[in-house]
Amino acid sequence: MRKLIFCLIMFSWFKPNAQTNSRAYKVMLEGMYKHSVPTLSCNELKKELNSVVLLDTRAKKEYDVSHLPDARWVGYDDFDLKRVDNLPKSTPIVVYCTVGVRSERVGEKLKAAGFQNVRNLYGSIFEWVNQGNPVVDTQGKPTPKVHAYSRAWGIWLNKGEKVYE
């Protein structure tokens, strides 16, 4: 309860870099993020899509359902820096996952490995889809499907077709 009250107080002072419409979602994210990796909003990402490398930090089965166009899968539990060893350390990288927690942890690992321009997509794929942005399947075709991680987390996905398998 103290953590929730703290998050509500912090949220009233701190305006996150995002356009989330749900105050509850914003509070939840602020309570979970460590802010160890800078964030960028979906609108900011849309302006930079052609100049960043997108890294999907979810499980492979989540990525296979859908992912942001041109995103590379790097995983979370089995994340290995070898998956990005072909990228110069100055490469602008945007990491994302379901809501942004796992991607923040991978972003920390990338920063610790010397990557200088790593940012976390605020609200991640849920926020991306909730704002009406496209996701694609493994063939690169647009799809309404989004892996919602679990039924508990799926409440934050307001658009798209939720997949749990």
UniProtKB/TrEMBL annotation:
Pfam families: Rhodanese (PF00581). Residues 48-137 form the Rhodanese domain. It comes from the Bacteria. InterPro entries: GlpE_sulfurtransferase, Rhodanese-like_dom, Rhodanese-like_dom_sf. This is Rhodanese-like protein. It comes from Runella slithyformis (strain ATCC 29530 / DSM 19594 / LMG 11500 / NCIMB 11436 / LSU 4). The lineage of its organism: Bacteria, Pseudomonadati, Bacteroidota, Cytophagia, Cytophagales.
